[in-house]
Amino acid sequence: MTEYGPAPVDRRLPTDEARQLMTLVRDLAAREIAPTAAAEEEAGRFPRELFTLLSESGLLGLAYAEEFGGGGQPYEVYLQVLEELAAARLTVGLGVSVHTLACHALAAYGTKEQRAEHLPAMLGGGLLGAYCLSEPAAGSDAASLTTRATREGDGWVLNGTKAWTTHGGIADFYTVLARTGGAGAHGITAFLVPGDAEGLSAAAPERKMGMKGSPTAQLHFDGVRITDARRLGEEGQGFAIALDALDSGRLGIAACAVGVAQAALDEALAYVMTRRQFGRPIADYQGLRFMLADMATQVTAGRSLYLAAARLRDEGRPFTKEAAMAKLFCSDAAMRVTTDAVQLLGGYGYTADFPAERYMREAKVLQIVEGTNQIQRMVIARHLAGPESR
Question: Is 370 part of the annotated catalytic residue set?
């Protein structure tokens, strides 16, 4: 970024503890994440040691109960932490969101014994999680997944392939959705699979447009054996568990999208305030000022939308529609804002010497992950007009 530095986001936080937490996160992001983000993304390097630091700092379990090592923070606070992390580097913010998603099935549906055995290490013991729902032939239509778990004795044997797994091949544990019954959503069950399980292997990471530091890979389950104690929830409950997790996960994507958009806005503002053409700063030109105004409005609107949904969640009220709206709007806004940031930087915006082009490439994936934005529109429309007629 150029020398001009916009002020930090003015946040409404519910407690003094949350305000202190946000100060900690901003300092950590400025000191440990942002300075190396561009170089590590270009090199395709995943910052595992940074996730260890985040775990030690209590930032990998913020949304979960203190009883099991979590931070006990409301979702409206956790999401604003995600936003700050994603603004510094999306690989980190999205990685925390995915880890939180991977812990959800155990935290919400596991038995007391399961939670006591596994959650402390998952939330604050340095472990990193991943979430396995999508498959090569089952993306948006996740209920058609074919990875199968077959009961053998007092355990299960898993066979199949999962696709698009963030942290695939490097995670310490995987929340896996597999078919245990007949076709459709009601034949799916959730399992907690250790990352070093025999028969579990990862393909080479996908070669992606952006987020090159975050490995995304297929996972192959070839006779992976686990005990029944690693089944999460009831048999056949897995798809409902997955949808429940995705509602919260979509809020995580929305917050990450706002973080990327905010970073792009800050970079663009810094540039136009110092760049001079025709004898004056280009920030004096009305056309560019209007672009900045539109960018800032979209960032602020997105933040308000995801926080409104988070507060519904914190109150225990339904928020599926609002989560879909937040994910849809925030990721679309991030794409628009980052594209405008590249335009405002002119030729420099198209070079890797400035981060605007990286923000633009990263924003694109947020319109796709955890349910494409076309799927979000379907979810919203069903809440408004009911299911489609057959």
Answer: yes
